[in-house]
Write a structure and sequence with these properties.
The chain is 37% helix and 27% strand. With 466 residues, it is α+β, with helices and mostly antiparallel strands. The longest helix has 26 residues, at 368-393. It is globular and about 80 Å long. The chain binds ligand PR8. Catalyzes the attachment of proline to tRNA(Pro) in a two-step reaction: proline is first activated by ATP to form Pro-AMP and then transferred to the acceptor end of tRNA(Pro). GO terms for molecular function: ATP binding; proline-tRNA ligase activity. It is an enzyme of class 6 (ligase). This is Proline--tRNA ligase.
C-alpha cells in the first residue's frame, strides 16, 4: 500500500462499502455490503452499551433558542451548524438546527425528567445521523458532513466523583469495544484548547492510520455542571435540598468503520476481524464433473452445521472459476475460507485458508466446527497483535523540537515528549512544526519540557492528524 488515500478510496468502491458519488459534499450512500459491515460494527457497540444504558431517540431538529443557550458550546459549533430557515415557502419564526451533536436537544428534556436523587444516575444513548458543516478537507467515513453512525451517550449523576467514575467506565467500554475490533489506540487527556466545547475535560482515543497520521476515533467528556446550570438540570437530594447534576457524554462515529478498514486492510483488500465481518466463513466447493453433486451436498451440510453453531457462513456455489471467487472474498475481507473438493471428500477433510496471514491447512470434517472456532479466535488475536505492534512501532520518544520535526517529516507517526503542559508553549509547538498535540498521556514530573525547558509535568503525544 504505497498511497493510503488512494487505496482507501478504491477499496470503499471495490468492496462495495459506500458510493461516494452522491451529489452533496461529505455525504455518501451505504451500499448493501457496507451496510452489513456497519450493522455488525454497531451491534457490538450497542450490545455493550445496552448493559448499562437505555437507548432513546431524539428529534433531528434543535430550535435555535436551545442551541444558543449554552454559550461556550454554541461558540464551538457555530461554524459547523446547518440551519433550516423555511418550512415550504414560509420563513420559520425560529430557525432550526440539524443536530451537530445532541446536548442541546437532550438536556432541556433531562431537566424535565430529573426530579429526585432517585432518578439518578441517568444513562442514555442513541445512534443517529448528525450534521457538521466541516470546512477542512472531507474524506469518506473519516471526515464527513453527515455522520451516519453517531453513537452518543449522555449521563447525569448526583456527585462530581460519580461523574468522574463514569468517565473511567466509558473509557473501559471503548477499550472493550476497540479490542473486539482489534483496533489499537492511545488515550490522552486533550489540551484545554482542544477539549469539547462546554466540557471540563476531554479524554480521547486516537489510532494511527497506515499513512502515519493519527485519527481521533472516540471521545469521553466530563461536562461538570456547565450544561446542568444552563439547562437547570436539578434534583432533590435525600435532605430535601435542590442540587445541580453532574454530567458526562461520550461518542463514536463512522471513523471506527474507517479504522477497521484502514488499519487491517492490505494490498489484497479488506481484512475484517471475525467479530464484525458480515460473512465470517465462505465455503467454496471445488467441483469437477465427477462427484460434483456429492461435493456440493457436503458443502451444504457443512454450512448448516456451522450456522447452527452461530457462525455467519456463505456458500459460493456460482458457476465461475474458484480463483475468481478467492479473489473476490479476499478483497471483501472474509476471515476464513473453506475449500472442499473430491479429494478432500475421500479423506473426510477440508482445506481452511486464513485471510489474515494466508496460512492454509487441512482439517478433519468430523471436528470442523471446533477447528473453525479456534481458527477465528486465533485470527482475532493475531490481527490484534499485529495492529498493536505496528502502532507501537510508530510511537517514538524525542528529546527536542528539531528531532520531533525530523521524525514527523520523515517517519510520520506519533511523537512522545516531556512537556510543561502550558498552553502558550503547546500552541508554539503546534505552530512551529505544524502538528497537533494529542494530549497528556500521563502526569509525571522530574523531566524538562522539550521545547521551553521549564519543568515538565507530563508525558504528552503529538502527531499530524486527520
Ligand atoms: C461529541 N457529544 O459530540 P465529539 N466525521 C466523522 N467523525 C467525526 C466527525 C466528522 N466530521 N466529527 C467528529 N467525529 C460529544 C460526545 C455527544 C457525544 C467523531 O463529541 O465532537 C470523532 O471520532 O468529540 C469524535 O471523537 C466523535 O465523533 C464524537 O464527537
Amino acid at each position: 500500500m504505497t498511497d493510503f488515500s488512494e487505496w482507501f478510496h478504491d477499496i470503499l468502491e471495490e468492496a462495495e462499502i459506500i458510493d461516494s458519488r452522491y451529489p452533496v459534499k461529505g455525504m455518501h450512500v451505504w451500499l448493501p455490503h457496507g451496510f452489513q459491515l456497519r450493522k455488525e460494527i454497531l451491534n457490538i457497540l450497542k450490545n455493550i452499551l445496552d448493559r448499562d444504558h437505555d437507548e432513546v431517540l431524539f428529534p433531528l431538529l434543535i430550535p435555535e433558542g436551545e442551541l444558543a443557550k449554552e454559550g461556550i458550546h454554541v461558540k464551538g459549533f457555530e461554524d459547523e451548524v446547518y440551519w433550516i430557515t423555511h418550512g415550504g415557502l414560509t420563513e420559520l419564526n425560529q430557525k432550526l438546527a440539524l443536530r451537530p451533536t445532541s446536548e442541546t436537544a437532550m438536556y432541556p428534556m433531562f431537566a424535565l425528567w430529573v426530579r429526585s436523587h432517585t432518578d439518578l444516575p441517568l444513562k442514555v444513548y442513541q445512534t443517529v445521523n448528525t450534521f457538521r458543516y466541516e470546512t477542512k478537507h472531507t474524506r469518506p467515513l473519516i471526515r464527513v458532513r453527515e455522520i451516519t453512525t453517531f453513537t452518543e451517550a449522555h449521563t447525569v449523576h448526583s456527585t462530581r466523583k460519580e461523574a468522574e467514575e463514569q468517565v473511567e467506565k466509558a473509557i473501559e467500554i471503548y477499550k472493550e469495544y476497540f479490542d473486539m475490533l482489534a483496533l489499537p489506540y492511545v488515550i490522552t487527556r486533550r489540551p484545554v484548547w482542544d477539549k469539547f466545547p462546554g466540557a471540563d475535560y476531554t479524554m480521547a482515543f486516537d489510532t494511527i492510520m497506515p499513512d502515519g497520521k493519527s485519527l481521533q476515533i472516540g471521545t469521553v467528556h466530563n461536562l461538570g455542571q456547565t450544561f446542568a446550570k444552563t439547562f437547570e438540570i436539578t434534583f432533590e437530594n435525600p435532605e430535601g435540598d435542590h442540587k445541580l447534576g453532574y454530567q458526562t457524554c461520550y461518542g463514536l462515529s463512522d471513523r471506527v468503520i474507517a479504522s477497521v478498514i484502514g488499519i487491517h486492510g492490505d494490498d489484497s483488500g479488506l481484512c475484517l476481524p471475525p467479530a464484525v465481518s458480515p460473512k465470517q466463513i465462505v465455503i467454496v466447493p471445488i467441483i469437477f464433473k465427477k462427484k460434483g453433486e456429492e461435493v456440493l451436498e457436503k458443502c451444504r451440510s457443512l454450512k448448516s452445521s456451522l450456522e447452527k453453531e452461530g457462525f455467519r457462513v456463505h456458500l459460493d456455489d456460482r458457476d465461475i472459476r474458484a480463483g475468481k471467487k478467492y479473489y473476490e472474498w479476499e478483497m471483501r475481507g472474509v476471515p476464513l475460507r473453506i475449500e472442499i473438493g473430491p479429494r478432500d471428500l475421500e479423506k473426510n477433510s477440508a482445506v481452511l485458508s486464513r485471510r489474515d496471514n494466508g496460512e492454509k491447512f487441512s482439517a478433519n470434517l468430523d471436528n470442523i466446527c471446533d477447528e473453525v472456532e479456534n481458527t477465528l479466535k486465533s485470527i482475532t488475536s493475531h490481527m490484534k497483535e499485529k495492529a498493536w505492534a505496528k502502532m507501537n512501532s510508530n510511537i517514538r520518544p524525542v528529546e527536542g523540537l528539531e528531532e520531533a520535526r525530523d521524525e514527523i517529516e520523515n517517519n510520520k507517526g506519533v511523537i512522545s515528549f516531556d512537556w510543561c503542559g502550558n498552553e502558550e508553549c503547546g500552541k508554539e509547538i503546534e505552530e512551529k512544526i505544524r502538528v497537533d498535540i494529542l494530549g497528556v498521556q500521563k502526569e509525571e514530573d522530574g523531566g524538562v519540557c522539550f521545547h521551553c525547558s521549564s519543568k515538565a509535568t507530563c508525558r504528552a503525544l503529538l502527531a499530524r492528524t486527520y
